[in-house]
Design goal:
268 residues, alpha+beta, Arc Repressor Mutant, subunit A, Chorismate lyase, seven-stranded antiparallel sheet, 8 helices, 29% strand, disordered N terminus
Length: 268
Amino acid sequence: MARASSVKCVPKRRQRPPEGAETVNVSAPQPRYRQLAQTLIAEIQAGKFPLGSLLPTENELCEQFGASRFTVREAVRQLVQMGMVSRRAGIGSRVEAQASAPGYRQVMSKFGDLHQYTEDTTLVIGHMATVEPPAAIAQSIRATAGQTWLFLSGLRHAGGGTPICVTHIYIHPTFRSLSVQPRQNVPIYTLIESQFGERVTHVQQDISAAPLDAANARLLEAKAGTPALHIVRRYRNSRDQTIEIALNLHPAGRFTYSEDFVHDWIAK
């Protein structure tokens, strides 16, 4: 049975960009690659790189900006996530749109991309309590009878407007005094690490298809029965204990999951 928690969200004022502004949603100061991304966005919108054209090569951008290969690669990746640019091996980076596409595109190639996702979006927490996890969840996280986990529920936004997903998070009882802001741009697992000295060593992610039920459809301003992506992430420590499980439900058209695969002989 759920019990009211004494843990409270602490209000925090945040400056939001103007409606429709094409900016990368981060807190100042911005890293160099995000500044480069802003410049490329402005140049695409000004017509310097028309729709269907290719951006300069990575080496050319490095030379033009006086930047490292990593900085340039991350800047272009920002545009890919926004749906403004597509990348194809052997072809290059093609301009696909002059404005950010609706929804959010998550490009995965390393652990840090999970952190990037939470920086580019905002989780607005609407409910917080200590609960005994439902049976199906309890089994997957090895929760024993009587354990009360910290439960967070909210909507995630990418640049404001219509939410891109409903998120439910269960946090191990050891960390149920976690201090959380009502608007989060920081991964919950990093809050656990910083406040309790814990360390997440691996994340298991499962992706499946599921229709939206009536309750979640109302929250997401979508039609009940709409196809959706159900993404479950289990965050584990070095002792293989689940310290957090996050369940995310994305309606069709609001989230794209993209992953780059490198052939073994190239990686070596």
